[in-house]
Amino acid sequence: MFINAPVQILNVIKRTKSQIYIAPHPLLSPYIAHYTLSFPKQPKSFAHAAEVRKLTLIPDASGCMVYAWNGTQFSESLWGPTTKIVEVTDDPYHPVHRFFIEFHPGGLHALTKFSQHDFSDKQFKIDEIDKPLSSLLSRALFIYQNRISSLPLNSAHIPSNTFYALIINQLIEEVNNILLKKVLDQEYDQHVLIHNITNTIRQTKGNLSIKALAENAYISQRHLNRIFERHIGMTPKQFARLVRINHVINFYQRAASAPASIVAQHLGFFDESHLIRDFKTFCAVTPNQFLKNMSNFYNEPFKY
User: Are residues 126 and 231 in the same domain?
Assistant: First the structure.
């Protein structure tokens, strides 16, 4: 006797009531952190349904593609690498579905081949940057949208049956195939170099000197600065400082009561004042102000 097991969504990193985080194809993992499917939450009242707030995104030197649809309208946007905070509207109960392609630092350059210095802290339409890519991705998302629109929703507003898992898996496979053809066609050696250097910076929490980074990569500091400006959109020194701040935020999320002096010492800052200065540079608030309003901030959980 054969029993058909229910089909599962593949490569799920994390799942919440309104979001599913999915890993990309292994060959895309140096460039893409994850895909995210976002669904509207089920409102408990009319007041809930109208709830909107401002959410502050912590800069992460990464790009992001966003597709959104509400049943009648379909939109797309591309965010370049962020070096400063971005305020967005958080509308969890509005009937909007979203699909995010979240890049690692340098990943957007691998896709577009454009200097990320020109993309930093800017927003574009995807078809302004790459019309064929926009058409392919839009078609894949449009088919996905049409398929799920006919499925019943569960209490969390997320389709929960086997058909939905199949549709999700087909979407991710199609997006993987589209992006694989784009990122693996040229400049492979440069992308590997950047990936290795940014990994080293993240692993050392931004505490390795630029001189040491250049020496480890067998390149000059001048060349290191040049390729960082092109691939990441900032200098390696700026990137290292940004990495340290993201680690500070991760630390606070685990130990909110930790004194700034302890955090500074643990994460390699010269002293507490240097921590506060860098934190305010990238987050526009002091650590204390951040701790009082943590729920109003968001930093990427799968990049740092």
Answer: no
Rounded to whole angstroms, the Cα distance separating 196 from 183 reads 16
Question: How many C-beta atoms lie closer than 10 Å to residue 243's C-beta?
Answer: 23
Query: What per-residue string of b and e applies to 133-155 under the rule 16 or more CB within 10 Å gives b?
Result: bbebbeebbeebbebbeeeeeee
What is the per-residue pLDDT for 53? 78
Please tell me the pTM assigned to this model: 0.90
Three-class DSSP category at 173: helix
Co-location of 17 and 159 in the same domain: yes
Place of tokens 């939905």: 164
What is the span of the domain harbouring residue 71?
12-183
Distance of CA 93 to the CA centre of its chain: 22
Residue appearing with tokens 């194809």: 25
Mean pLDDT by runs of 10 across the 304 residues of the chain is 64 91 95 92 63 87 92 89 90 81 94 93 94 95 84 53 86 96 77 92 94 95 95 96 94 90 92 95 94 90 85
Sequence-distant (6+) residues with CB within 8 A of 40 are: 18, 92, 93, 94, 95, 96, 97, 157
- Longest CA–CA span in the chain (Å) reads 69
CB burial of 190-215 (b: ≥16 within 10 Å; e: otherwise) equals: ebebbbebbeebbebbbebebeebbe
Q: Angle, nearest 10°, between helix axes 236-254 and 188-203?
A: 50
3-state secondary structure of 186: coil
Q: What is the predicted pLDDT for the residue at 262? A: 92
| 85 and 209 together in one domain | no
d(CA 121, CA 194) in angstroms, rounded, equals 20
Which pLDDT does position 158 carry in this prediction? 52
